[in-house]
Amino acid sequence: MKAEAWIFGACTVFFLLVTPAYWLITSASEHGGDWTGTSALTMTMLLAFMVTIYLGFHAKRMDPRPEDRKDAEIAEGAGELGFFPPYSWWPMWTGASLGVCVFGVASGAWWLFIIGAALGALALAAGSSSTTGVSTLTRGDR
Question: How far, in Å, CA of 77 to CA of 69, rounded?
């Protein structure tokens, strides 16, 4: 995870440098600085920083993976990668109900928001209670 932390750290530094430069370039126009783009770049920098901190924290706490060690052999990477849930339709229904909620708010139809919230609660309850088993992914399955 050390390599991933360095990649996101480089992205954080990039956005840290680009954000004020973007503000200065857009403030030279007759309309002033662009608040929308500057805000988006600031949030992107903060999100990249958050991922950097998370990956760096976990890279220090766990043993180095074969991908992180220079003396590792290819065969050391074989074996189980972890447990992953099988294919499920419930995330699609949860996302669709969220779309109905957002559409209801955007169009000012609060009754549509209430219908979407009810469908979302139903999708969350049904999706969390369905037990279809757990699959194991190994490096040979890629």
Answer: 11
- Are 92 and 41 in contact by the 8 Å Cβ rule? The answer is no
Average pLDDT of the chain is 85
Task: Say if residues 134 and 83 touch (Cβ distance below 8 Å).
Answer: yes
User: What H or E segment, with its residue span, contains residue 83?
Assistant: strand 80-84
Band of the pLDDT at 67, cuts 50, 70, 90?
confident
Please tell me the distance from the alpha carbon of residue 60 to that of residue 68, in angstroms, as a whole number: 12
Give domain limits for the chain: 2-67, 90-130
Tokens of residue 43, six digits: 């949030």
Q: What tokens does 77 get?
A: 């990477």
Euclidean distance between the first and the last CA atom of the chain, given in angstroms as a whole number: 20
**What does the alpha-carbon distance between residue 98 and residue 78 come to, in Å, rounded to a whole number?**
40
Q: Quick one: average pLDDT of 115-131? A: 84
For residue 113, what pLDDT band results from cuts at 50, 70 and 90?
very high
